[in-house]
Amino acid sequence: QQPQLVPRPVAESVVAAMRRLSEGYPMLDKASILHEAAGLMAAHTLQGRPAPEVIDELEGLFEREYRRYLDTWRD
């Protein structure tokens, strides 16, 4: 199953990015992503990390998990 990614809007919030990525990668187990994603969201909300920086990391997290997903089907 391929991701159904929507292009990233210019002024996207971290919460909207999380929603967009979750919808774009429906095949992933969100529970396995939750801990790291929550940490990134907290860094934005509580520590003031810029949204674009956090969204970049969220996109990387989902891409990494998707590659792991593909590896499990190849084995």
Describe the structure.
There is one protein chain. By secondary structure, this protein is mainly alpha-helical. Helix content is 71%, strand content 0%. It contains three helices and no strands. α1 runs antiparallel to α2. The longest helix has 24 residues. It is globular, with a radius of gyration of 13 Å.
Whole-Å distance between the termini? 16 Å
Compute the number of strand runs. Answer: 0
Largest sheet: none
**Average predicted confidence as pLDDT:** 94
Oligomer: single chain
Radius of gyration: 13 Å
How would you sum up the global shape?
globular
Poorly predicted runs are: none
Strand content: under 5%
What percentage of residues falls in helices of 4 or more residues? over 70%
Number of separate helices: 3
Output the helix-strand order.
HHH
Q: What class would the helix/strand composition place it in?
A: mainly alpha
List strands and helices in order, with pairings.
Blueprint: H1 14-24, H2 30-47, H3 51-74
Helix pairs in contact: 1-2, 1-3, 2-3
What attributes characterize this protein structure?
75 residues; mainly alpha; 3 helices; 0% strand; globular
Quick structural gist:
The chain is mainly alpha-helical. The longest helix is centred in the last third of the chain and has 24 residues, at 51-74. The model has no long low-confidence stretch (mean pLDDT 94).
